[in-house]
Amino acid sequence: MAGIRISGARRTYGSSGGEVHAVDGIDLKIADGEFVVLMGASGSGKTTLLNLIGGLDRLSAGRLEVWGTDLAGLSEARLAGLRMTSIGFVFQELNLLPELTLQENVALPLEGAGVPRAEARRRADEALARVGLAELGPRFPDEVSGGQQQRAAIARAVVGERRLLLADEPTGALDSATGTQVMRTLRELCDSGVTVVVSTHNPANAQYADRVVRMRDGRIDGITAGNSATAGNSATAGNSATAGNSAATGNSAATGRSA
Ligand SMILES: Nc1ncnc2c1ncn2[C@@H]1O[C@H](COP(=O)(O)OP(=O)(O)OP(=O)(O)O)[C@@H](O)[C@H]1O
């Protein structure tokens, strides 16, 4: 597998005397196409780990490979290029630009990468359709619900060829029914081949995952199989039941943890 390989990862903030070990020795492998939930209390290091995986931040020590590339070896420009083409982020706060339609918001990363406008908008429509918003492209963010805005942000995160989606508390600002819709959308994207890593406080979100990684004080406290088999996703039932536990099935062998 290519996937994500993290070994001995540390991220320390501050100077001597006032150091915070936000990520404090993490070993984890995430297979392509896997859905991993990072669960833990505030301050346990979830956001820091997501930012490291996505190349928004750099390790203090250890090694982190994404699709076989050691991120430490990439210049800022190469990292930015990797994010632009292959990695999408979704945050808790809705961060669509209010003066642009949903379609224009979703097309923005492609236009930023030099894709001609008409083509960018065609692909934006495809991405909106993938998250169940095919009809809503012409609307402005304040003309749709909070959950629809978050799904549009997810469409923007996966537009084009992006195959890794990192979502930091994507349901944190939503009521539970709307949060459920958003998690289902993430699960469906995963089932279509996108690797998804979600940070959350909410135990209910574990049901969408193939694996749940529990974090505490910058470390992994335990890894369990998620419950995605019970979330109506027969396509992933096999993986989630065995991920990390068995060498007998293709994916699970690759997702074994070393934490
Ligand atoms: N830029 C920074 N400078 C100093 N300390 C930081 C920085 N970013 C994070 N930290 C500290 O690192 C630890 C981990 O923070 P992080 O944001 O990764 O946790 P989290 O699990 O995502 O928390 P939350 O659920 O509240 O977002 C915390 O103690 C935090 O205060």
TrEMBL record:
Residues 224-259 are annotated as: Disordered. Residues 4-242 form the ABC transporter domain. The keyword Transport applies. CDD domains: ABC_MJ0796_LolCDE_FtsE. GO terms for cellular component: membrane protein complex; plasma membrane. The keyword ATP-binding applies. GO terms for molecular function: ATP binding; ATP hydrolysis activity; transmembrane transporter activity. Keywords: ATP-binding, Nucleotide-binding, Transport. This is ABC transport system ATP-binding protein. It comes from Kitasatospora cineracea. The lineage of its organism: Bacteria, Bacillati, Actinomycetota, Actinomycetes, Kitasatosporales.
